């Protein structure tokens, strides 16, 4: 009775006879995962070797929560048995359910396989009458006679694409590279969450302000369906103040805060101070597609600006723009767009549509490299005139002009001076609450926008939404823009337009005959539908 010569495993052709007591016990284990784990699961203790799994209270809480909820997220310190706990839960699911598929995804393939190894170890030390016959058994995959299976893989957008999973376990998800986290949730996660009984379990120690942080914060503010387990280092028996002092003495205060106090800490070299970063909040978009997120719809008489950055559409960096309401302080991000495959020939059309929609927003186009082509198409082909020009001289460098100078060019080049001034102004605005950023992706990029040499750039991933904000912060301090956006000037323009309308209507005259001109007349209502004005 063995699988491939392993006497600890039951083969698919092996037969077992159950006693009445074993049948009763099997049914009890199937009904109660806690009873099964604490009675029959064995784990490896670093000091004692193979021992029964004597669970702590927070580990029992995890078992109960996974059993009752579809989405569970656990924020836990290092070395508290989180992986062992979930491994025991997964073992129960595949033993006592038919055709149940589980995917274990971790930062590295070796880590995912190590978790599967823990499940295999516990399986091998179960009584034979609790086991299922083994169909396949290797380092990355097991399949049982009841049709249930477990796959171990690294977290990526293609890890489980095309497969059907009942439960996904994401181990140490905060340590998966940020671009992989984003790709996973964009391409794989929707197919999992669309099921009615599928489960997702996430466990991790915090590692900066990333997708794991977003999921946790969204759960706290009830913006998603995840149920939280928050474990403190003192929940583990034997960990007291003396233990804490010893750990800090052998590591550091900051490391202890992140790995044991489970604080979400950003880089200490970020443009925006870590303290301020943790205070930044993001909003749920009013509208959202794959490329665009809208936080504020355009409102009459309000002033908007659109700042655009351009990439080469190679699927790497993004072409991105940010629309900001600059009517008064605090400024607010109204919409963001980013796409890393759009052609520079099509990108101006997108900019044109949104700039026009947002009250003919003033546009600043980054003109390095192919950005100049975007600015030219926007101006010459779409005939969009609200684009800022810049001129340069040795004394003052680049400055925004009205476009009348012979040296004026559409857009702005991101020179060292422009970026330095823009970063300084942007830091001041954010830390003094002069701008509301709203967008999570933008805020997340700020977590990684750190000092490098004499400048700032993304430590990893992208800064394609941050850079339009940096250019905006340079732009908004330009004398030409200050005058253009001043309240008095806008009021003068509005009054001039109002006077022109009145003068245009004067020749028609209005004769008051004492009667109500609206009596017995139908009312004409005007409303906007898909950017078209309709009469009712």
Question: Any overview of this molecule?
Answer:
The protein contains 18 helices and 24 strands. The protein is an alpha/beta fold and 536 residues long. The chain has 2 domains: 212 residues, P-loop containing nucleotide triphosphate hydrolases (Rossmann fold, 3-Layer(aba) Sandwich); 207 residues, Nucleotidyltransferase, domain 5 (2-Layer Sandwich), CATH 3.30.420. α3 crosses α4 and α4 packs across α5. The C terminus is likely disordered.
Labels describing this entry:
36% helix; seven-stranded mixed β-sheet; elongated; 24 strands; alpha/beta; 18 helices; 536 residues; 2 domains; Rossmann fold; eight-stranded mixed β-sheet
Task: Please sum up the structure shown.
With 536 residues, the chain is an alpha/beta fold. Helix content is 36%, strand content 20%. It folds into 2 domains: 20-231, P-loop containing nucleotide triphosphate hydrolases (Rossmann fold), CATH 3.40.50; 278-484, Nucleotidyltransferase, domain 5 (2-Layer Sandwich).
**Total number of beta strands:** 24
Average pLDDT, rounded to a whole number, is 85
Structural class designation: alpha/beta
Q: Which percent range describes the beta-strand content?
A: 15-25%
Topology, please?
Layout: H1 20-31, H2 33-40, E1 42-45, E2 49-52, H3 57-68, E3 71-75, H4 82-95, E4 101-106, H5 109-124, E5 134-137, E6 141-144, E7 149-154, E8 167-171, H6 178-187, H7 189-193, E9 199-204, H8 211-220, E10 227-230, H9 241-250, H10 253-259, H11 274-279, E11 287-288, E12 292-294, E13 304-309, E14 319-325, E15 331-339, H12 347-357, E16 362-365, H13 371-381, E17 389-393, E18 397-401, E19 409-410, H14 416-431, E20 435-436, H15 440-447, E21 449-452, E22 455-458, H16 466-475, H17 479-484, H18 487-505, E23 526-529, E24 532-535
Parallel strand pairs: 3-9, 3-10, 4-7, 4-8, 8-9, 13-16, 15-20
Antiparallel strand pairs: 1-2, 5-6, 6-7, 11-12, 12-15, 13-14, 14-15, 17-18, 17-19, 21-22, 23-24
Helix pairs in contact: 1-2, 3-4, 4-5, 12-13, 14-16
